[in-house]
Amino acid sequence: MDASAESTSPTAPEPVLEGEEAVIAALLARSRLREGDLVRARRLQEETGGGLLDLLARLGLVSERDHAESCAEVLGVPLLALREVPESAPELAETQALSPRFLKQFHLCVLGQGDGRLDLWMADPFNEPRGQ
């Protein structure tokens, strides 16, 4: 087959990545994670279980900042600086009140409300709560 035929042949579409895998792909694309380190971490994850992103952080292979930036990029949401987070939770209407237990269980913090929406901060949007 000549080179011109190769360039016009259809290619398979890229698979759509979700959750942790999308964040890991973003980390790799931004050169914040090396492929060899990822392979090593996946092997260790098979032995120990748990979330791969958590393991990468515990091993020191990905910084919390790089993890957060990649999550924000994948989700298409802004990454807030600490100075942008209110010092105390805003008062919510009774119909929008969330129990402290719920907020703690899912690692959420209420930032504000308006226009029929509730703005939340999430510690790790791809991390499933323990025991779930």
Task: Please give a structural write-up.
- The chain has helices spanning 3-8, 19-29, 35-48, 52-58, 64-75, 100-105; strands spanning 108-114, 117-122.
- The chain has 132 residues and is mainly alpha-helical.
- It has a two-stranded antiparallel ribbon with strand order 1-2.
- Strand 1 and strand 2 (117-122) form a beta hairpin.
- Helix 2 packs across helix 5.
- The radius of gyration is 20 Å and the shape is elongated.
- The N and C termini lie far apart (52 Å).
The Rg value, from CA coordinates, equals 20 Å
What is the share of helical residues?
Answer: 40-55%
Fraction in beta strands: 5-15%
Q: Would you count the extended β strands for me? A: 2
* Terminal-residue CA separation: 52 Å
The computed structural class is mainly alpha
Query: Sheet bearing the most strands, described?
Result: 2 strands, antiparallel
Q: What sequence of helices (H) and strands (E) makes up the elements?
A: HHHHHHEE
Q: What is the molecular shape?
A: elongated
List segments where confidence is low: pLDDT < 50 over at least 5 consecutive residues: 1-7
- Mean pLDDT, as a whole number? 81
Give the strand line-up of the largest sheet. 1-2
Number of helices: 6
